[in-house]
């Protein structure tokens, strides 16, 4: 019996959602799994080719409606993220940044002209987007950003730097958040749709990563980037704009991280059945079984929480602190499962022959981005105590 089926979580999903999940799993297993270990080792990933194929599969912006997007349920999107991350966190990050950050920002806050121009091409994977919020000195505190946009006649001129930006070096469009208030008030933060061929825009790739190596990560440099007034996202003002986008991405991580955990656990169960120690399978020893049982329990508990959050999101009632519960739990437990699986595989667990160490390294980043564990703990605690401890 598979570890994720002990309590029959499949019965909680609609048949259409399961059909889509199975299609994504089959496609990713056939197209991406055979090459992901090499991509991770070389630190390269065929982003443009992958984006077009994932666009053809229908998963880019799949939970959005109109403009060539599928309009799928939140639950279906979560299951797709789970299957993508079961192959590699970098693959899910590509889809998440494209659909839940860049596309969602345009879909939620953009003008009709911006939507019509960008969303259909992004849904097909013909145009790639990135999302510029984090800065070298401002991660968990985006309100302190130093990227500044000043008015110059009818135009806006942007200067600043963004850091740790997925897809940045290969993107056709960047959603860049900048301060427009000289006083630095959070209410002055605005979003800008920046074509990456605009003069003054550059995106040097960040090399020598030890995590998310099958993913493109970049810095964004804005040096006197001049944009027309039509580049502003008209519906977004203040931090509510970018934070709403982050909550979309965090929801995908709730399911996605569990995909990495499932892949580690299934790999380890197979290995333990085949590996003989002192004349019998490793799976037959009590210590091994205790580890496998505990990890299965945490995976199942994580799935139940993810499903509940999916129900709330499809019902239109999902709150930020609830997303924090899911993101904190899924990433933290997935990382512990990956580490636990590595101990069962022993020395074999550190090789590229098995995906466990790769997943563990990736999950170290997933634990941090889209809100660190500490930030999500504070979000949860604020909801239950009524006191904010961020400052």
CATH H-level name of the largest domain... which superfamily?
Butyryl-CoA Dehydrogenase, subunit A, domain 3
Task: Please state how the strands of the largest beta sheet are arranged side by side.
Answer: 4-5-9-8
Low-confidence stretches: none
Using only C-alpha atoms, the radius of gyration works out to 21 Å
Instruction: Tell the overall outline.
Output: globular
From the 3D coordinates, which CATH architecture of the largest domain would you assign? Up-down Bundle
Question: What is the overall pLDDT average?
Answer: 96
Number of strands: 11
GO molecular function: fatty-acyl-CoA binding; flavin adenine dinucleotide binding; glutaryl-CoA dehydrogenase activity
Pfam families: Acyl-CoA_dh_1, Acyl-CoA_dh_M, Acyl-CoA_dh_N
Organism: Ruicaihuangia caeni
Protein name: Acyl-CoA dehydrogenase family protein
